[in-house]
Amino acid sequence: MQKGNIGVTTENIFPVIKKFLYSDHDIFLREIVSNAVDATQKLRTLASKGDLKEEAGDLTVHVSINKDAGTLTVSDRGIGMTSEEIEKYINQIAFSGANDFLDKYKDDANAIIGHFGLGFYSSFMVSKKVEIITKSWQEGSKAVKWSCDGSPAYEITDAERESRGTDIVMYIDDDCKEFLEESKVKDLLNKYCKFLPISIAFGKKKEWKDGKQVETDEDNIINDTTPLWTKKPSELKDEDYKKFYRDLYPMSDEPLFWIHLNVDYPFNLTGILYFPKVKSSLELQKNKIQLYCNQVYVTDNVEGIVPEFLTLLHGVIDSPDIPLNVSRSYLQSDSNVKKISSYISKKVSDRLQQIFKNDRKEFEEKWDDISIFIHYGMLSENDFYDRAKNFALMKDTDGKHYTYDEYQTLIKDNQTDKDGNLVYLYANDKESQYSQIEGAKAKGYSVLLMDGQLDAAMLGLLEQKLEKSRFTRVDSDVVEHLIAKADSEDTALEADKKELIETVFSSQMPSIDKVEFHVEAQGLGETSDPIVLTQSEYMRRMKDMSRLQPGMSFYGEMPDMLNVVVNTDHKLVKDILSKTDSATAEALKPVNGELAGLNARHDSLNAQTKDKKWDEVDQSVKDDLSATEKKIEEEKGKKTSIIAESAKDNAVVHQLIDLALLQNGMLRGESLARFVKRSIELI
Ligand code: ADP
Q1: pLDDT value at 459 more than 80
Q2: Average pLDDT estimate for 341-351
Q3: Are 473 and 427 in contact (CB under 8 A)?
Q4: 341 with 307: CB under 8 angstroms?
Q5: What is the pLDDT of residue 101?
Q6: CA distance 100 to 480
Q7: Which pLDDT does position 154 carry in this prediction?
Q8: Hey, which of 181-190, 469-478, 513-522 has the most confident mean pLDDT?
Q9: Which among 601, 594, 586, 603 has a CA at the least distance from the CA of 635?
């Protein structure tokens, strides 16, 4: 028998393990099982080289629970250890600067375990005593038993063990009894060991017999030793990928696409990424990709390794070249990791390009589902934008798809404005913007449907990227002015008639909280709508943005400024005009006469001040000027009330205003009831 102290330079390693690794408890099993797998793989290598004298035999690793003894045991038939090897690999743990390091990484068990090669010692996180019973593969080796109860003292004694290999026997701590539960251990194995490259058995397979589940003689193998990503893509069928996806994410719908990653230079990386089908944005979840290192599960937090926008994908990545035993911040600055990240991004765009090219129809059918990933990528990564712009699609309101280039060609002739800007018209709600969409289409314009989550951001990006291009929502102006073709021709209407009709309508607009109406009379042609509500693209975008950016609350507090365009060419408006004209002519005569005189006076006073500085103007002239202006305002006020008085009872005016509000979803409550009543009366 040999006794000694474990070679740690710090006082005592075990409290450290328990204290600092507490949160990540579960991984001890991964560490112990993967050590067993390593030892087994080494044995296989020896056997294949012909160095092994005996038969390799069944190499299954067994995990077993003994509730009576309170132990959890992991047994392998790998290379085993001689007592010298135990001394070297288990007893001597180089352990310098430990406290500093532990302080820094106290929340990152992976880093600690990796840094110190503490894999084996993580068993002490859950055990009051651990035994190693092992026999080396080398001829003539004797079995030995190492045992340690959580103090730095260990014991090595001779042991009985028939065959080559190692048992790690963990005497589970009283406060960790859950690790003696079959269901708990099963869960852990399923999480961490599901794809280990050597068969892992836990208990026996069960079958139904006479209405009961009974154990069979067959080992219950919990892992798949050759998971799909380790196989050659050329040997796999679609169904294989779909099945693997179902195994990984039993609750998810069938994936849209997948990408099989496979590189061996300048780094090793394999994996399969899936584009999930998400029913709503609420379902978008990060951290569904699992990261493996040689088939050992490491984490499902791939931030920093995979480009941010691809963390929304599902699947697995396996790489021995990702330095896992370091902190996340280090990981993100590691140049190898950066290369991996940009490789994955490129691979994803290549694959999308390929699907687009080979099966455009399928690509279009799935566009609604994948666009969120592609747009996110385009918005967050310039390189990805440059590649994706060749296969990213735009969809019009009829559901037809175009690439950016195709769409540009389509609208070039008809939708270029007088300044040479290409105007992309879009709607973001097919229902509420129905009439504006139809109006634009009647003019031969194409209207895009941009109702996706990221579309608002996308159109901003596209305006930057596409030269001389502008996005305008279909309801941001009357259709005649959506795309300014030539400098707008003057409407034939004289100024006073124009003013009259504007006053009729503005005096009757309802007052709505936080909404301001600006009425303008325009000649839009006889067949166009009599009245249209619009909101300028600029104002709307500013308000939308102010909702997201705190510094812009100025815009947010401004009322909605809506333009009310009254079409003076329309028969109904013409009728209103002539009716109001004759009803008010008499009353307006004196006011207009007065106004004409006042305006003339105002002009002549202005002429006197024209070439002078304001200080040099006579006080009497200044006084006269302001008195005249005041009178003009008064007369204008009189004029407005005369017109308003006549418009007040004009049912057609109210009906037109209500129709415009209705089209924009702004007619509610009492106003709506009044509208319905008036409509019936008019019928
Ligand atoms: P690491 O695996 O990172 O080297 P560990 O603390 O997990 O660190 O293990 C230390 C060493 O102990 C291993 O490198 C290996 O040589 C030896 N060892 C651990 N478990 C076994 C086992 N089941 N069979 C044979 N050797 C083992």
Answers
A1: yes
A2: 91
A3: yes
A4: yes
A5: 52
A6: 72
A7: 83
A8: 181-190
A9: 594
Token representation of residue 135: 């026999």
607: which 2 tokens? 């002429």
Specify the pLDDT at position 553. 67
117 lines ligand 1 (CB under 6 A): yes
Do residues 300 and 291 lie in contact, with contact meaning Cβ atoms separated by under 8 Å? yes
Give the HSE-up count for residue 379: Cα atoms under 13 Å, Cβ half-sphere: 18
Atom 19 (ligand 1) nearest CA: 35
E strand segments, 67-116: 71-76
Where does the pLDDT of residue 307 fall: very low under 50, low under 70, confident under 90, or very high at 90 and above?
confident
Per-residue tokens: 296: 């050992």
pLDDT at 565 over 50: yes
pLDDT in the model for residue 414: 93
Q: How far is the CA of 53 from the centre of ligand 1 (A)?
A: 23
> For residue 243, is pLDDT > 80?
yes
DSSP string covering 17-78? HHHHTGGGTTHHHHHHHHHHHHHHHHHHHHHHTT---S------EEEEEETTTTEEEEEE-S
Per-residue confidence (pLDDT) for residue 94, from 0 to 100: 41
- What is the rounded CA–CA span in Å between residue 303 and residue 196? 23
pTM above 0.90, yes or no: no
Q: What is the pLDDT of residue 377?
A: 92
Report the mean per-residue pLDDT for the chain.
87
Of the candidates 472, 478, 479, the one whose C-alpha atom is nearest the C-alpha of residue 539 is 472
- 89 CB less than 6 Å from ligand 1? yes
**Pairing of the two strands 200-209 and 61-66:** parallel
Percentage of the chain lying above the pLDDT 70 cut: 88
Q: CA-CA distance, 623 to 452, in Å (whole number)?
A: 60
From the CB of 166, is ligand 1 less than 6 Å away?
A: yes
For the stretch 340-344, contacts whose Cβ atoms lie closer than 8 Å and that sit 24 or more positions apart, written own/partner, are: 340/267, 340/269, 340/305, 341/304, 341/305, 341/306, 341/307, 342/307, 342/383, 343/263, 343/269, 344/261, 344/273, 344/306, 344/307, 344/310, 344/317
**Residue 125, burial from CB neighbour count under 10 angstroms (0-12, 13-18, 19+):** buried
Q: Are 356 and 391 a contacting pair, CB within 8 Å?
A: yes
Report how far ligand 1's centroid is from the alpha carbon of 121 (Å).
10
Confidence class of residue 122 from pLDDT cuts 50, 70 and 90? confident
Reported as a single tens digit per residue, the pLDDT across 605-627 is 888 888 888 888 888 888 998 99
pLDDT at res. 97: 44
Whether 556 lines ligand 1, by a CB cut-off of 6 Å, is no
Contact assessment for residue 167 and residue 134, using Cβ atoms and an 8 Å cutoff = yes
The lowest-confidence range among 24-28, 323-327, 676-680 is 323-327
Q: What is the DSSP string of 345-356?
A: HHHHHHHHHHHH
- Alpha-carbon distance of 34 to 6, in angstroms, equals 23
Question: From the CA of 29, how far away is ligand 1's center (Å)?
Answer: 13
* 159 CB-contact burial (10 Å; exposed 0-12 / middle 13-18 / buried 19+): middle
8 A C-beta contact, residue 485 and residue 435: no
Q: Give the position of tokens 């079995």.
A: 143
Helix (H) or strand (E) holding 382: helix 382-388
Burial 191-230 (b: 16+ CB within 10 A, else e): ebbbbbbbbbbbbeeeeeeeeeeeeeeebeebbbeebbbb
For residue 81 and ligand 1, the question of a CB distance below 6 A is answered with: yes
Residue with tokens 């392998």: 76
